[in-house]
Each structure stands twice: as C-alpha cells, then as structure tokens.
Amino acid sequence: MYTVIEGGVTVAAGFQTASTAAGIKYKNRKDMAMIYSEKPCKAAGTFTTNIVKAAPVKWDQKIVKESEYAQAVVINAGIANACTGAEGMGYCAETAQAASAALNVPESAVLVASTGVIGMQLPMDKLKAGIAAMAPELSGTIESGTEAAKSIMTTDTRKKEVAVQFEIGGKTVTVGGMCKGSGMIHPNMCTMLSFVTTDIAISKELLQEALSADVKDTYNMISVDGDTSTNDTCLVLANGMAGNAEITEKNADYEEFCKALNYVNETLAKKMAGDGEGCTALFEVKVIGAESKAQAVTLSKSIITSSLTKAAIFGHDANWGRILCAMGYSGAQFDPEKVDLFFESAAGSMQIIKDGVALDYSEEQATKILSEPEVTAIADVKMGNASATAWGCDLTFDYVKINADYRS
Amino acid sequence: MYTVIEGGVTVAAGFQTASTAAGIKYKNRKDMAMIYSEKPCKAAGTFTTNIVKAAPVKWDQKIVKESEYAQAVVINAGIANACTGAEGMGYCAETAQAASAALNVPESAVLVASTGVIGMQLPMDKLKAGIAAMAPELSGTIESGTEAAKSIMTTDTRKKEVAVQFEIGGKTVTVGGMCKGSGMIHPNMCTMLSFVTTDIAISKELLQEALSADVKDTYNMISVDGDTSTNDTCLVLANGMAGNAEITEKNADYEEFCKALNYVNETLAKKMAGDGEGCTALFEVKVIGAESKAQAVTLSKSIITSSLTKAAIFGHDANWGRILCAMGYSGAQFDPEKVDLFFESAAGSMQIIKDGVALDYSEEQATKILSEPEVTAIADVKMGNASATAWGCDLTFDYVKINADYRS
User: Can you tell me which residues bind substrate (chains A, B) (predicted)?
Assistant: First the structure.
C-alpha cells in the first residue's frame, strides 16, 4: 500500500525542476518549466486522439516510441504550438537542441510540451532564453516542484500536484506528478499536460502498459467542456534510482506500482475536473449495476458532459430529469424504468429516483447536498456488477466569460 | 417552385387551431394548444432516439404506426410528461378521450405532445378543462395559428411558424408549420415539438418517407446544447383537401412537395437554433469539399456543438483554432493541413485559414463579421464534392442563467 506524501514531480529520487518568466505570452508570471532527471529515464506517454495534433505532441510521440531514454521535459504555457505547420515542428527541434546544450543530454532525450492559444507561433528567442535561465537553477526541492506546477498553468486557478511512496523489497519507491488543465478538457487517450516522475526501476514496455491501462480510468474519465484538445499529453518518467530490482513482469511489485500510479493519476485528473474553467464544484458521477464496464463508462461520461445537467449542478438544483435524459441519449442500452438515482456530498446523501420515477424527496435537503464543493450522483441501472466513475464540473457564468474572449 | 406566405399551421385548407391558458404550470399566459383538421389526415412522425421517451412520444408512435388517420393534436407546455411511468401513459389516453369527446373524432385519431419539466405529473383536471375550453374556439385564421405557436413556447423568446404554397396540376397546395424549441436541443431523428399541416393528397407511406428523409437535413442538423430531449416530436398531417390527385409514387409532384416540406422544416429548425436558450446569434456551419455526406455531417455537427467554439462566437472572437480542434476530435478523417476556413455574415466575408495555417487577416474585420445576428463558418476539407450545413447558436451567460434554475 502507498502513503500520500507532500510534493509533486521533484520528490522521486534524482528529479529536479526549474521555472522562469520567459514572457512568451503572459506578463508578470512564470510561464516555463523544465523537468530534469540526474539519470536517464524510461519514458511512457499517452497523447490526444484529436487528429489535429500540436507539434509537441508529434515530437513526444516520436521520442517515446523511438528513443531508448528521456532525461528532460521543457514546458511552456501561453501558446500551444498547434496548427503551426512545419514552422511549429521546427521549433520543437530547436527547443530540444537548446535544452540538449544547456543540460548536456542528447536531443533525442528531450521531451517538449506546450499549452495555450492554438495557431500562434512560439517566440523562439524568448523560449531559448528561458531554457538558458532555467538550466543553472534546477533543484530537487519540494518548493521547486511546486513552482514548476504553478508555471505551467493557463486558466487553472490552482496548481496541481501529488505524490505517494511505497516499498518494494525494502526499497522506498516514490511516484509524483503535476498537471495543468482547466478548459478544452475532454481527454481521449490522455488529458492536457500531465507529468509523472518516479524512481522505480521498470522496463519501458511495462511502464507504457501501466500508463495506457490507467489513463482509461483516470484522465479519460474527466470532462470540463467536451472539447478534446490538440495538445493532450501525459508523460511518465522512471529513472530507476529507487534501487529496486527492475520490474520486467506483471508480478506483485508491478501491481503495487500500478496502484500508486493510479492514485497519482486519479488525483491529478480530479484536480483538473474540480478546477474546470469557471467551475464552482467538482461533479462526480458513479454508474453502478451496469452489465459491462463499457456501458458504465458511456453512461457516466454522458452525464458529466451534459450542459443542462452541469448548469443544474451550478444552480444546486436536483434536476434529475436531465440526468436520466443524458443517460437516455448516451447510446447505451438500459431500462429507464429500473434506474435508481442518489445524490451525495459532505452534507449527506439521499435517494431521488426509484425505478425511474421520483420519490417524494425534500428539494430543500437535495439543494443542501448539491451546495457542497464536491457532489456525487450515483445511478444504479440494476443490470449487473460493473461500474465506472467519471468527473466533471458545473457550467457557470464564468466558463462563458473565460471563453468568450480567451485570446485577448 | 413554392412561394412563402404568411401564417403557420392554419393556412392549409381545413386546419384550425385553438389555444388557452390552462394553468398547467405557467401563470398569466397560454400553455395549451390544439390542432384540428376538418377531414381525417394521413399522419407521419419522427421522434426522439433517446431511450428515455416521454409518454406522449410513445403514444404518438403508436398512433402514427397503427391508426389509419389522425385528426387532432393536443399540446401542452410546462410539463413534459417524461419519466412519469404508467401514470403518465394513462394521462395520454385520458387526454385523447377528452379530445375525442369534445371534437367528435376517434380516440385513435388524437395525437398528444408535451414539453417542459421532466418528472412532474400532469394536472389532468386542468388539462381536460383546457380541452373543453378550446374545442368551441377552433378557428382557421392566421391569428389563431399564431396564438397556438405562442402557446407552446417554453424558454423560447419568439413564436416560430412558416408556410409555403405551390401548385400541382392546377391545384394550390399549402404546407405550414409551427414549432417550439430552445434548450435540450440536439435532435436525433427529429427535434423538440414541430407540427406541419398540409392539404396535399398523398399516401401515408410517401408522407412518412418524405418526412424521414427531410429531418436528416433539417431538424437533425441543429443543436443548442448537445442534449437530445426525451420529447422530440415532429408530426406532419396531410388532409388531402387541396384536391390534387393523390400522390402515390415518387413523381415530379412528390419532388415538389419534398422541396416545400424541406423549406418549412429547415426554416423551423433554423428558427429554433437562432432562438437557442440565451443565444445572441444563429451560428451556421457549412462543411464543403467532403468525401461523403456522412463526413460533412459529422464535421459540421462537431463544430456547432463545441462549447468553446460557441463561447468564442458569443465573444465575436475569430478563434479558429477551436473550430479546427472540434473538427479534429469529431471522429471524421481529414488532413488538417489542407483545411481552408472562411467566416461570413451580412457584414462581409473573409478567409481565415489556408491549408491549415492562419492567414494574416484583420482581427478587427473578423470581429465585425462575427458581430452580426447570423454568422456562418465555411470549412473546406478539399477531399471531394459532398457538403452539409448545420445550425447552432452561441453559448452565453444567459444560457447558464436559464438552466441553472429552470425548474423554479
């Protein structure tokens, strides 16, 4: 079992970060970060399924697939380097060159990630100056990791990081992560930008397998607005410095690692959903009693992406008809006249629907439950034992405000 | 060719309407309407594909399928009679009984339609009193039709009606329609409540075929919020009183009718999109140069349902990256680096993207174009000759306001 500890990407042995205000687009704040590992890392990644892929996504897919090792990640906020053609691809190579020179690592070991406005070109002079400024400042402190997590934010209101520790054969293994993501969030394969570092020793194949399996239950189960980004990237770097015997098969150690990775990814995913653009509440939806996992996933994601349901959550309104409606158009088959529905939060829990029809519940009590910063809806379709959990947020005035004029 | 004329469902020969303030849920306004034909009608219908179907949808599906004729429609606003179990189905039968007695038509010739809050039961005493009050007031005037169109509104801000006339063999044929719909609009098979009346003589089979084909290009191509309602219903009643030789095969007369029906349905569909909850602009999206109609439909619908794109339209912001992004996650295959994108409106037109990359366009001019009440985006994917047009609206503060507390 793992223990949750303080910090993010710098707590695993051998990992350092730096961050700087490069002035790429934001004023008066940091907008670049760098992750560096003292030793070469096995790297795994999952990326957006949007066929409009940003240049850094294409770059990282190549590195993860073809390079034996990765050792650094250069991240910028403000400009996404998406829809930037051949020029944008060239900037990824230039970034890797600059980091390679500054850190004395091969260019093929440098991953890059960008987030921000689509369609603008990166100011490479500022990006290179940022890399030069960060390299001498690399540090493995918790504070340095936290600064990095802040630097990659766009419309995020909170930095997002988490870390856990567990033991393998007497060796302490650490897994930590940070991410950013607030809008254009409807991951499909992975989410916005998420970076996980670990000192575990594990084969590259199993690292990728563990990540690919886990994103299905974590990043792929959140949605802020139904828009799958061009830049979604999740990278995991494992440098082996924990000193455990390298994991090369799916044994008990692998399972322990998967559990820790799941906690880190799920926590980061929920932090993104709970910090969705303009949102006032994390909205969790559990579908239980499903006949298959796929059915439960389809139903729960349909509910968290329903604009009408999300607006009702913002209004603390137990408008369960919209939830049943969203289940009905999801494409999944079920009997609406068997559905039970419950709401719960720190303020209590209550059943709203039994067998598809409303109970004589107290609207006042329901509103009280729905007024908490984290609210859960549980739908039981009574067909089997499969279940799924999805996370989203409410739809608010501020979501519209933020997105009606994001570019200016 | 057809001519657009004044009026709605009462202009075709033999059709009358009445409306009343039955006090079902709204105060101080009409909330019930009735359509009646002097002669029995062939009836066709298309209905929601949501598997959570409101009781009136199930009732009408049975009538359209099994009854030889229909002669009346009873409509109420305020309560949707959805998720109301056996009790709700019983209310449809009671409504038909009451209308049957009041109008001297068979129960099997009475269609019913409801729109409003999901999950509440209808107050049948008020509904029956409404039917009794309306029956003696039936009238074929244009004003009566307009009053009916107003009575069925929920969050709509404008009544929606349209009518056209054309000739078949020296006989004047009229097709008129009215509809309501503003939120929970993402039709799949048909849209919210739409009623089309015509005096054409046509076989029941061809009437249904013409409608089923037409909804694919009209009601199924609009979206306000991505939520497919439990109550979507489109009904067409044809009473044959134009005196034309009954259309029983797909001849030139059938084609003329299809064109007129398409105009009526497309006009009503656009009126719904342009009156989407809280919206300030009708947003039209044309995808051209597609390799298939299906591809063009998928791409255009993905754009009009993108929350981020819709928020940008509200902000008059030419944030084309969101449009390309929405195309990219639609599931349709295309080459992002070949896409051209144009914006146009009454204020002018301009190209924004050429071959996937932004042109050096004037943001000021783009904002001017996007500030009109009707704006169009045209995406050319340069793969073939197929195209599709979809209609939606912008995402605004008022959409959230309306839906955060719709029930109170």
Answer: 154, 180, 191, 277, 403, 408
